[in-house]
Amino acid sequence: MEQSDLLGFVEGDCSPDEAAAMQAWIAADPRRGALLEDLREVWRLTGRHTRSWVVAGARIRLLPSRGRHAAQGSAGFPARSGAERRRRLMAPPGLSHVLHVAMIRHR
Amino acid sequence: MLDSRMHSRLATSERRATSPTPPTWESAFRSYYIELCEYVLRFVGSAEAAQDLVQDLFLRLWDSRGPRDATRLTRPYLYVAARNRALKYLRHRRVVAAWVARAAREEPPGSDTPEDLCLCGELDDVVQRAIADLPARCRAVFVLRRREQLSYREIATRLGVSLGTVKSQMWRATLRLREELAPYVSHPVISADRVG
Fold it and tell me: Which chain A residues in 48-87 lie under 8 Å from chain B, judged by CB atoms?
């Protein structure tokens, strides 16, 4: 893990497993946490949002799962049902993540 | 860039201050979806997970629409609910306890006061100058990423350089801005070479 990887973390470009590994790495040294806060400050000062969030896409994904406005179609966005979303959120961490975190803790 | 941010914040503050109607699911979603994603991202570090958590929160609110909406579709409630969901997610994924403890200390951002908006305007010049003072290639990469929201790959194509060059220039630009803007950040800056 390198300091510059913190940028991807600030911008949210990590997968959930990569993010968990980064969190372990950051938590292992308070100076990394301070650097993370500095990077977030630079982001806050230089732009309105951390990244480009697609609100319309999110809304279109949400409503069909409740049978409302389904006629609008998904406009190219994959419709993810509530059950699927919860399954993804509550899925146990992948093996690669567990090994990665274990290695970081062991260092 | 900051200027447009300030105008947008002013417009949002005015909307909140003058809105005579009680919040609806629609208005709450429009007003808070992005800021809640930003907030949850600080906990989880993955935009994918942050969006899933915030969408799940809004789905639950949709399913339980009713008389309590006047309370539940407000900014303070939404922030607390989003925070609780993010912490539960971190614990479920067995993220290291030290990070969960750190995340638990995260305060929701306060609403902008007129003083904040004024300071934001003053900072604009400083930030624009700092960006303008970056070395040419650093500046080009930084502006394409932060203003035009291009992906690193798109920037590499646009500038005709490798992906690695884009990433390293972006990192250099960020560190340089961190030094230049150190007087304006809310805590002391630690030198990057002292971080392992």
Answer: 48-53, 55, 58-59, 61-62, 65-66, 80, 82, 85-86
